[in-house]
Fold:
Amino acid sequence: MIDTPPHRRLSRALLAAGALYAALAFLYLAPAVAGGRVLLPWGLAARFEPWASERPDVKPEPWDPLVYDGIGQFYPWRAYGFGQMRQGRIALWNPYQMCGQPFLANGQSALLYPGNAAFWFMPTGKAFAATAWLHLALAGLFAFGLLRRLGASVGASVAAGIVFAFSNWQAAWLHLPTFLCTSAWMPAAMWASVSLVRDRSRAAWLGLTLAMAMAMLAGHLQVAVYVAMAAAAAALYAARGMVPRRALGGCVLAVTAMLPAALVASPQISATLDLARRSHRSGGATAAGYASYTAYAVAPAGLMGLVSPGHAGVPTDPQSPYSGVTRGGMLFNYAEGACYVGLLAFLLGGVGIAAGRGRFLGLLGGLAWAVALGTPVAAALYFGVPGFSGSGSPGRILVIWSLAAAGLVAAGIDAAVRGISPKRLAAGLAGSLVVAVLAYASAWRLAGELQTSVNWGQAPAMAALAAVGLGALLAGERLSLGLRHGVVCAVLAADLFVAGVPLYHTAREEAVYPASHTVEAVKAGAGHDRAAALNASWSFAGPRAALPPNAAMVYGYRDVQGYDSLMPAAVKRTLTEATGADPSPPEVGNMVFLRPEAASRAANLGVGLLLTRTDAPSPAAPEAPTAALGALIGASVAGGRRCVVTGASGAVTWLADTPSVVTLGVRPAGPATLTLRDTPYPGWQCTVDGAPAAWKPAGLSRTVALPAGSHRVTFRFAPELFQVTLYLGLLGIGLLCGVAAVGAIGGGSRAPRSGAAGP
Structure:
């Protein structure tokens, strides 16, 4: 392969490639923006009350518990978090769920990530598609730049960018934007790593620092770990064949680039790690945990996804619903094993390996599959990386496979164009077919055990497309080089569009979390107290619930239930003690409900209004009879007040009740204790009449002792950790600006070495 062209030519190529990927991303997302639609799976929430009753025109879609996160988590997070930012406040605390909990610290809020700028200026629903468009284009552009740096031709690099950006991994996770936003920086980090080790340029050092900082801020730490792993692997690859001293120096420079990246991202990362160690997921790596981790790995039959993305059905197709299982035989989610990169891409990858041009990327992709399949290689991550035991399933590492496969496609294209020997061509194609046959045999056996059938779906059409692409590529001088590359890129894009576009959901913008007279009645009835829906039914088959977790964030009332990847352990512990049972449904450990059995203890959680669906048993109403609230039934709770005074009689006046500041006017007749039934968490500060006062945790409450008389009590969430790391983040940004303005790193910018090997 040829080495990187001169910088001026590379810049022109990058501009052209960027325009191409932007256009392709727009076409890919066109169904999500045409006709006033938005890139949100609202059809999954349409089954819940009160919307099922108030908006019967919106039909529920086939249930997908993972894709539901797009509307059940990410929309509320973005609506609340960036709504606060537009008002000039950083949303450090979320008062609406789980009796209050840290918000910035949940990581996936991604408030500090520049790539989420669309949420500052656009309606929340519209911003999802805009953010996806930006990051699909960036993913393609960065993959193009990486492959050019590794020595691939322009045409082959364009194809690689198409494969990575529109792979089924990206399509399947599209409704969970932190996955795309983080993974888009993987090829950028690898590109910068290779350039830094080889050239020791200031631009490469800054590029690696920026890419890693963006990956850490984008909101998904597990994928950010994969980005760092891929960047480290690229640095080691680039150092091969160098004089040991020079190779070591380049790798050290790569490590030093990570340090300011961590500084820039420290306001987000430090808060997330602090919450993680206090969360329901804390506990460290254990043998039992590893067994559960690998049980949720991709089953061998999942390899069938390499050649047929719908072999076990499609989650959005009610006529052929997805029915995959994990390695341990549990129900699987389509996204957790998404590995399709295009049938032509799969065949070309085998050609690239056979040509000897894809050893590095082949090894990288193979290691990713070793983890995804739950082999002993996965133990190195689970036990070796601190905190990794609390991450998601092994199959998510297939993002590395998707990028490696893109590079193998580039290697295969260049090998075919430059005249690969017939023997090697046959060996490459045969190798790919052998893998396909073994995968089919495993899928056929599993289908027999499950009494289902292997669904070939659009595989015949994709096979025909692959034949056209291969024919054009191997046509030799009968077709111009540009036409051959163009046909291959068109085939790859068409294949991935056909496979990927049906995986995402769209909705009418006005239908998403619509105004509701039921919700308005709930808010009025609860006031400053909590309104808690009694829910118990949640399953992979499809839940039945009223005002599901996180809806309160959109509408602005306070709730006990919640749904988050990280939550204070005290929340789950207190709700467990209230009923003697786990408040989370068996299918979703990150979700907590106020179950009907806990209704008698709701007052201790500051609940003033209990709610159920009209078709469910009414909640106990010790103080007042139940009342119809539109599609729900509500009942007041005796003593259900979020703020109470004990020890002496005294009135309480709400002076301020904002997300991060609660101010109360209190007038006890004697020495008393003020109890605010909000989650106690480090970082809350209390003042009484302007003077600092100590508060104590009590269950899911904060208490402060008061003398007799009139007092002004203020609780303010201002964690010192965030203040310190905010300065560190600014220091990191200043360091990057200084490096950009002053001299070069390691001897200055140098021209790329000639004769660089391919991937």
